[in-house]
Amino acid sequence: MKEYPSLTTKRLILRGFTPNDAKDIQRLAGDKDIASATLSVPYPYEDGMAEQWISTHQDDLEKGLRPRFAIAAKQDVPYLIGAIGLHIDPEHQRAELGYWIGKPYWGKDTQLKRQRQCFAMDLNNLDFIAFTPIILPEILRRDE
């Protein structure tokens, strides 16, 4: 079994999700504004959805298709603020980066910082010819 990679900076931690994150995922991703600004977050975000979503991550990582990471604020007790992931299309040697940040953390200097950190992860061995960050206009406006 592959170990989920992680990255720690002065203020953020990118790490694999755990079942303990489920309640925070439901609370943060369950906001109507998050669902309306993303392509894959359902609304309403019902009980059990976060646990089911987390349960798919290890298999997707093993297949090299969709690594997804929790974005946690680095504190004495780190807390979840969002999610970031890659959608990898090996056939076309392309990948898309998508993310969401919980509404309580909008405008808190994490949007572009988080994206730069994701690029700092070891993506060189993935051999892409295209890497496309997905940034929806609604999300950019909210971070201004």
Q: What's the short version?
A:
By secondary structure, the protein is an alpha+beta fold.
CATH class equals Alpha Beta
Kindly name the structural category. alpha+beta
The oligomeric state is single chain
Helix content: 25-40%
Q: The CATH topology, please?
A: Aminopeptidase
Which percent band covers the strand fraction? 15-25%
What's the β-strand tally?
A: 6
Shape: globular
User: Strands of the biggest beta sheet: in what spatial order?
Assistant: 1-2-3-4-5-6
| Low-pLDDT windows of residues | 127-131, 135-144
Q: Architecture, according to CATH?
A: 3-Layer(aba) Sandwich
Number of domains: 1
Count up the helices.
6
Instruction: Say which CATH homologous superfamily is assigned.
Output: Gcn5-related N-acetyltransferase (GNAT)
Mean pLDDT over all positions: 78
Largest sheet report? 6 strands, mixed
Order of helices and strands: EEHHHHEEEHEH
